[in-house]
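Record 1 of the preview.
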Amino acid sequence: MSELNSAGFPVHIGFIMDGNGRWAKKRGLERKFGHKEGAKTFRKIVSYCKELGVKYITFYAFSTENWKRPKDEVEAIMALFDQYLDEVRKHTKENIRVMFIGDKSAFDENFRNKMIALEEDSKDFDAMTLILAINYGGRDDIIYAAKQVAELVKSGSISSSQIDESLFSNLLYTKGVPDVDYIIRPSGELRLSNFLIWQAAYAEYYFTDVLWPDFDKKDLDKALDEFKNRKRRFGGV
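->
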């Protein structure tokens, strides 16, 4: 469980970027245009979080269920991801470590190699860690770790009595990252949607009706002010 930073902000914030399609529909546009605007918001919020001194931010960019969306919408989202991978290369001076969580095997080799290379090249950056959940699902994350535990026990590397929360956490996609403290979901939906299920065991939640493309600095300030008023007891009194 992580502590607050010196300004009283959460160490690790998770964002569920929701409402892109509805934003576009309200304007008579195709859903893919909402994702394009949402990508602009993403860049602004990353920059602002770094400015505020937030150390870890995780964005729910594409879930294991999102493959069910229309083909042209999925292709538009993937094109935005690919564009971002090329773009972030030009901003290494920002000293932001980039991680990808989720099953990379679903992507083509070129895209997968770009992700792996960016993770490797930014691994020593320490201004902030930016985590992108792509082809990610909380249940899939737990199964991913459980399979590794099973292999460790089968090989005799550990006994079943050695399985505990610490061991399990270190086998998740988020290995080495502190549990999420605060999950922010725009768009008016009141659920996690399979996002960081294990890691959010003691997280606080913030829901707002603002659609993600319209979410800005003042909306994040409002959410962070709310966080400061929360009393986190982690099961204690």
